[in-house]
Amino acid sequence: MFRKTLVVLTLIICCPCVANADFRLRDICRFKGQHESTLHGLGIVTGLNGTGDNSVKPTMRALARMMHLAGNPIPDGDLLKELKDAKNVALVTISVRIPPQGARAGDSMDCIVNAISAKSIAGGTLWPTPLVSDQPGDPYVYAFAKGMMTIPDSKQLTVAKIHAGCQLREDLENPFHRDGVMELIVHKDHAGFHNTQEIEDLLNNSTDFSIGRSSQDPIARAIDQVTVQVHVPEKYKDSEVLFASLVMNTKVYTAQNNARVVIREKEGVILIGQNVSIGPVAITHKNLVIDAADGKRGFVGLDPSSTAETVRAKADPNSGDETVRLKALVESLKALQVSTEDMIEIIKGLKVSGDLYAQLIIE
User: Which pTM value belongs to this model?
Assistant: First the structure.
């Protein structure tokens, strides 16, 4: 005979007093043009212990070309004969990340090397390899990569790293203004009409930029929910860096972000924003009944003779906030020792039913 057990956990979720957050524009924006880019190339790794490519013709052609550039050409007719047993070489791709602020000639950066068909590139050395930009149709060589490789993950022997293995031969600049105009790009987590309009108002009303212009001559204009166009005032025409610094240091008090829930199923991680709310809903999952109700509707009726454990999350009707927070519901489930896997399934169910008021990202 089953013992009838009813566990009721009621959460009173008060509306926290939201203080003005001391955001700066630099926390939620970037200048157009200030973005990460990548250099890439196709190269040869040598010195492998029989784990290289297995007679792959593209590898042979690449190796033959490098030998030709090194002053040791192989006649085309002898290519396959000479290189068919070259098992200690591998064709690889090389990528280098360039930071948003760009880089200058002579800078050294880390390289990531990926094998194309080799079993392992552990212990190999990358031959000097030219690197080009990620812009289609740009064949210019901006850097060279070379050096001994290390394997960051012993379980992934086809991916290697060369510390400071890339050296730039040309400047890579990311301009932050053009013809006296800068464009602020709001980060995707904060993109929205409310935020771009607030940025426009803040810059146009800032005392730092008001000298020498009238209210009829605004410097900022919101273009859409992502972009704010900013004109450099006359007094800063020869001091664009100072102006950019002042703009990025402008305080934003009511920046809004998009509600999100991020689930990493492999690691069993659930990331929930503080203001993620759920609708009034009752869900049955295994031996649980999840009951969430807003401040007006009260609880959803339940059968008191049920053998299920009942988790009730309720908003405080006196707080002025009639929503139930997902974070509190998850904490309640955790208190009842509900597994992470079951929590993830419950959150997925809330999203499917339309009762999760946030974007759900599953990685």
Answer: 0.60
